[in-house]
Amino acid sequence: RYFVLDFETGILQYFVNEQSKSQKPRGTLSLAGAIISPSDEVPHMLVVYSANGEMYKLRAADAKEKQYWITQLRSCAKHHKEGNSKSISSSRSRSSSLLPPGTVNSASPSGQKHMNQSGPTVVTITHHKSPAAARRAKSQRSGQLHEVREIMSQVEGQQKNLVQAIEALPSSGPLSALDQDLLLLKATSAATLSCLGECLTLLQQSMHQVGQHHNRTLSSGILGWPGPKSHSTEQLRNGALSSLSSASANITWAIVPSAAQDAQALQPNTEVSVLASELILVEDEMTDTEDNEEEDLGVMDDQRSVILHLISQLKLGMDLTRVVLPTFILEKRSLLEMYANFMAHPDLFLSIAAGATPEERIICFVEYYLTAFHEGRKGAVAKKPYNPVIGETFHCSWDVPKDRVKAFRTNGASTVSKDPTKEFGQEQSTCYKLRFVAEQVSHHPPVSCFYCECKEKKMCVNAHVWTKSKFMGMSIGVSMVGEGVLYLMEHEEEYVFTLPSAYARSILTIPWVELGGKVNISCARTGYSATVTFHTKPFYGGKVHRVTAEVKHNPTNTIVCKAQGEWNGTLEFTYSNGETKVIDTNRLPVIRKKIRPVAKQGPLESRRLWQHVTHSLKEGNIDAATEHKHRLEERQRAEERQRVALTTPWKPKYFAKEGDGWLYLNPLWKT
Length: 671
Fold this sequence. Notes:
single chain; alpha+beta; PH-domain like; Porin; 13-stranded antiparallel beta sheet; five-stranded antiparallel beta sheet
């Protein structure tokens, strides 16, 4: 490529070759306020960071030419910065990498730079930043923290060399590419660079706000540093992982309990089990005796090395939907069942309809919602449920004693521990019946649907959730895309709610889960809305599992209730009249769900479908569990290939697509 530096205008241009310099340049870069730094990524490389976020990587022929160009470029950048030149020639963000080692450069005093080819030289231009990121980058003060950016650029090159050196080692022997310490080094070095990049972003934002009194909050993109690149985008090469790489087709990695937790909280009430298309006999249902306790993921060396190798292959921000995850991190239940387990306090759910006023009903909804998470997760163990296969269903129900369903602020019995065994033998006439059905309606993207109803209370919930997970270095984040709607037919009210995100932290030691993000609950008819915020733990200090909530009457802009505490601990509610109420989620009695025995379930119902995987996990036989899981997923892939060949789309059994969402086929409001 042929480069021209115009000192007067402060513009660096490049052309395909010298003959095309009379034409429009292929690219231009304003040097006003730019940072020019040497790079160790390859010999004789220098990097030009412009003030608007663009970056050029150039390789000189030798050390002398490299230094000459660094001097000239820095002089030009300084001159135009001092002249307060703010001309930016291009708003596009791109990185030009002159990679091949056969590039020869010759510089002339006039400021023209010739990139002549002594071999097959390639210039690749990669658009690595979004337009929004470029605009944010433009707003940054160009001269700040430039030394830090230079050092980070050098470290990026060193980290790349480190990774390449490790991957070049043999796969066996005294020092192999799969050595636990080396895998840990790869994973932590990538995460460290990511963390430092985020820190740099925060510093730049602070300096920008101080310097220009700019109040707009910038999102956390690495503004002055492009971030470490993934050097292992190919498939996993670890022979020890061959069984794993074929074992999981769509690891939705609703990943850790947390992901499911999130979704469940908002769908805790989402299922009905009496359907015209399939006979689900209530008489066959029995009180569930399954123990959902899960042990912490240990730090066994063989397991850690598998996780480390997996992490070392991932790119920051990578979507993990189709990433293969090891079997030993699985819970012994499907994601669909996990959503049902968030209905462990159905008495609080049914109490919503008992509210005398719209204000009481939305406050009851918030109280139920905040207590729905802790029981679905026994502790904060970061294991993930099975990813449901397309067409998988889960049915269950609850018998809720009528004396447990209290009106607003009188349901004190629900906040005091009782003997749950007394409720199991309740006569049907003294109980409300709550039914739940879930179905996996889509494979890519992985979408789960839920419907839950109580005919006697004339209330039901319909929800759909799409899980999106991302790799974040030393943690994994799961977003729950979708929404649920609670219908109170007696009051003609609909409450729309969204779902929080979940995060698996410390994935290299003993993983744990926390919820994060802001959830909205709103009723258009009454004008009431609530905002629930799940606070993630700060890097330094701070409490874990914090949650705050605020209920507001929008027409009068009046706050009628506030709540704070821990979603898996104690919650304190304060009402507009000064009253307070404390709920200890650990003392709330659990009403166990009722479910049919496996022998009476259909072939696509969760417990029957996954029974062999569950049994193997209980026995501690990870190899057998992996094999059974692999068979299920291979069958799913074969069926999908057949549907594609016959151009026959999958048709869900209980839900139908409507707009961007999914609705239960026979909801209570229709019957």
